[in-house]
Amino acid sequence: MYSIAYFVGSMVILLLIWSLVSAITKSEIPGPIATWSVFFEMLKDPFYDYGPNDKGIGIQLWSSIKRVMMGFGMGSLLAIPLGMLMGGSKFTMNLLNPLIQVLRPVSPLAWFPLGLLAFKASEGATVFIIAITSLWPTLINTAFGVSSIPDDHKNVGKAFGFSRWKYITKILIPFALPHIITGLRLAIGVAWMVIVAGEMLSGGVGIGFFVWDSWNGLSLEKILSAILIIGFVGLLLDKFFNGLQNYFAYENRK
Amino acid sequence: MITELENEILIEKRSETSNCISVKNVTISFKTNGKGTFTAVKDIDLDIKKGEIVSIIGHSGCGKSTLMNSISGMVRPTFGEVTVNGSRVTGPGPDRGIVFQNYSLLPWMTVYRNVYEAVDSVLKNKSALEKKEIVEYNLKMVNLLQHKDKLPGQLSGGMKQRTAIARAFAINPSVLLLDEPFGALDALTKGSMHVELLKIWNLNKRQQTIVMVTHDIEEAIFLSDRVVVMNDGPEATIREIVDINIPRPRNKKDIVHLPEYMEVHDKLLSLLVKNLSIEDVIFE
């Protein structure tokens, strides 16, 4: 109950600051009310499709989410096994750690041309940059989770002669799972940030493209609406993984 | 001529006297951070017969657990060797059931699952139904059947301990290794766990060999046939092996009045504790 009250309070602060900025700039940046009327129009028919450069916000959003999920999914499918491999042996950890440290800080935009070259299409390139920038948090957290399995748990496997498969499924994964999900939660945040930049470069359809297209059309109300949508979808994605985190935290499952 | 009967008796005698666990001239050293080695135990010789209950007792850090771990196979001796049932120990194995000092239950599994996964791993050839029966039988033995669906986090220390014991017994090992199994329990729970342990041992016709690490003299006397007293580490050696000649079944309340009990208790106490009293201070 209180969390809802805090959320509302927080939104009120946002609206106040927003209105203030709008007043200072003499409505060059549109205020909440002006934005709301445009936003409302957008929501009235979110799935219209009048050709390649004029689609409803729902279609834009949905194509972005699909892209994010593809990139995020592919990155995670690579990151989780690799992270387990790293966490499982000091050798692979020491061998791969410098590589990760070098590649991790690279901006998604820097990867974009490589993606274009590899996939010969902007669609593939966008998914590629999401995958390659969102896999690091999952990789690092998985490796950390697996490497911090207590000796007590490992000894159970040794003492009762667990097979490799039993060790992985009954000890390694259950122990590392909360860490993996924390990684995924950070990764989806990164992926959702990268999508806007990616689509601005790639064009076509998507929430990032919509922002850029609205800038070209000089509709700041649409840009602000899109920012709100991006923010709320990000919040929902985070909440979803937060829920997963709580569900799989075995300490809490009582 | 040796008759068949005599032969049988001979074989029986031989198997009676044959050692189940044999620790020969074992020294265990660990590398310490970069430079030098730390020798935990040195020149240990210890033979344990089948069906015997032996306690290893000594001060903290005297290498009791290290010695125990060389039998379980968790630690490899630097020199010497350990044999169990005639074969050399090179690693942990299902012929030795281990109850760890801190229970080591897997916190994401129910009591039932914790025992089941061990049984499933060791007794691969049994059918699913047989495995289920084994798990339930062992949980019943430690009075945990009604708690089988609880997670370790929901259990008291005594219940966790009983789960760990059920898990160790369920794989039907010929040797049971207990590393300070009752250390974390309150005195009342401890007392009933001792009785439980002997009950299970009796149920298995006293065929299982039990080695237990402890620092509790009363516990050692009540449970053991022999008590191994260790010197203080590093380079700990066996100080003395004390026989406990108190007939079984033993009653906790009665045995303390036996002269044998008092004698052996005094002996162990003086082996372990140097100063039995503090000097009187005279205030002037």
Write a structural description.
Chain B: Pfam families: ABC_tran. Chain B: It comes from Lacihabitans soyangensis. Chain A has 254 residues and is mainly alpha-helical. Chain A folds into two domains: 1-30; 35-248, MetI-like fold. Helix content of chain A is 81%, strand content 0%. In chain A, helix 3 (57-88) packs parallel to helix 6 (122-147), helix 3 packs across helix 9 (207-216) and helix 9 (207-216) runs antiparallel to helix 10 (220-248). Chain A is globular and about 70 Å long. Chain A starts with a helix and ends in a 6-residue tail after the last helix. The model of chain A has no long low-confidence stretch (mean pLDDT 90). Chain B has 284 residues and is of the alpha/beta class. Chain B has a domain at 19-89 and 211-272: P-loop containing nucleotide triphosphate hydrolases (Rossmann fold). Helix content of chain B is 37%, strand content 23%. Chain B has helices at 4-17, 64-72, 111-122, 128-141, 157-170, 187-203, 217-223, 252-255, 259-272, and strands at residues 19-31, 37-49, 53-57, 79-84, 87-88, 96-99, 175-179, 209-214, 226-230, 238-243. Chain B has a six-stranded mixed beta sheet with strand order 6-7-8-3-9-10, sandwiched between helices. In chain B, strand 1 and strand 2 (37-49) form a beta hairpin. In chain B, helix 3 packs across helix 4 (128-141) and helix 4 crosses helix 5 (157-170). The longest helix of chain B has 17 residues, at 187-203. Chain A binds chain B through residues 152-153, 155-156, 158-163, 166, 170-171, 174-175, 250-251, 253-254, and chain B through 72, 74, 91-94, 96-98, 100, 102, 104-109, 117-118, 120-122, 151, 153-154, 167, 171.
